[in-house]
Amino acid sequence: MPQTLGHKPTEILITGGCGFIGSNFVRYVLEKREPMKVINLDKLTYAGNLANLADVVERYPERYLFIKLQRKKLFVIFSRDLRSPG
Fold first, then answer.
1. What is the tally of structural domains in the chain?
2. Does the residue 85 lie in any domain?
């Protein structure tokens, strides 16, 4: 991941993360970029499927957040506290 002025990012926003490519990218970030947190924003159209990330929800409950985009409005349907402890 690129760094800006010595700052190491701790969260990443991924759009379309429930599709085939997006879900694999979400999984990659969570597996390889610990302790990075993932916010997945998806509209769940024909290509998006929550089942693609069912294992991610179980394995990374503190580092994964899914937000459904619907008709230009945001609805949080799965939420965990992504703030660092302390």
1. 1
2. no
Structural domain includes residue 60: yes
3-state helix, strand and coil shares in percent for the chain, rounded to the nearest 5: 25, 30, 45
Element (H, E) at 22: helix 20-32
Task: Quote the pLDDT of residue 2.
Answer: 57
pTM of the model: 0.74
Which residue type is seen at 65?
Answer: L
pLDDT in tens, 31-82: 998 889 999 999 888 889 999 999 999 999 999 999 888 766 655 555 555 5
User: Contact 1/29 with Cβ under 8 angstroms?
Assistant: no
Note down the domain range covering 18: 12-78
71 inside domain = yes
